[in-house]
Amino acid sequence: MAVKLRLQRFGSTKRPVYRIVASDSRAKRDGRFLEIIGLYDPRQNPIQLDLDESKALAWLEKGALPTDTVKNLLSQKGIIATFRQKTKA
Asked: From residue 15, how far is each of 3, 10, 19, 42, 60 by CA, in Å?
């Protein structure tokens, strides 16, 4: 089973709010997930990005692959850099 870190859409029409979740790559976008890692609201100014860094690092260490958007969000918080430092050591 391949695990991906990806966005799950919530909110009403034209007012998206996203959860960052770890889910099976075969599951639907808004379908089953394994764990909620954070929240992303692009409509706020500045954007609201709440992440549980320990959960994100744990999933990355287990081999979860982030989507492009989630990878950008994780790098904004510095989680990708932390993960790379841990894997080099």
From this structure: 27, 8, 14, 9, 29
**pLDDT in single tens digits along all 89 residues of the chain:** 699 999 999 999 999 999 999 999 888 888 888 999 999 999 999 999 999 999 999 999 999 999 999 999 999 999 999 999 988 86
CA 79 to chain centre: 11
CA distance 3 to 65: 6
Domains identified in the chain and CATH numbers: 3-88 (3.30.1320.10)
With 0-12 CB in 10 A as exposed, 13-18 as middle and 19+ as buried, what is 54?
exposed
The two beta strands, 35-41 and 65-66, are unpaired
